[in-house]
């Protein structure tokens, strides 16, 4: 439960610095917290990455200010760190689908985010099928993107997956899938100050893609069926809000790994989705 307490304290930190541009990478390293582990746990418990949570809360507070109508738009935007008024208007429209000037008219329809609280309930019965097994490390070949920790969102993972599917890269990767793990692997980890995302396949063959190797160890593999963007995130919420408190297992969250067992239409409701969670040694 110490993890839960730390996440709750970090929410307070974000609320206290809601108007600032927080350097999450620096803050977490100053706290001696491994960024990838923290972001995985925070996102699973809260439902958003730290950056997403701050932006949602910031835009909500701005909406309240605009609805009250006591100050000029330009003064409010500057107070919340937006020095370019046109960029602020664009960000506000992306958040709520309306212009800041329409806030009073549509205020009661806005998707506001209040200060978050989350429920942790130990699971009574399994929600997802799971198996525990020792997995030898294996080679992954694939495409890689790297993102700033400060602005990383798990949605970027599925945007990248969609891009690779639309451009037939997944189809090409599957031609090299001669390793013992069948399907598309999504590997997410923190390396060199960046969040690195690799999407690829298990392979023994030479290939014109980047490569990496997974760690050997004990894993719990959770499995379900459906759109990976929806199912995998729900599995992570289940793991960190329920399963881990019932099982009282120590998890290695320094990286995340998912497997989509499909040959085409990777966002199909019929996709088989697995989340591989490494257990601590």
UniProtKB/TrEMBL annotation:
Residues 8-106 form the HTH araC/xylS-type domain. InterPro entries: Homeodomain-like_sf, HTH_AraC, MarA-like, Reg_factor_effector_dom_sf. The keyword DNA-binding applies. Pfam families: HTH_18. Keywords: DNA-binding, Transcription, Transcription regulation. This is Helix-turn-helix domain-containing protein. It comes from Salinicoccus siamensis.
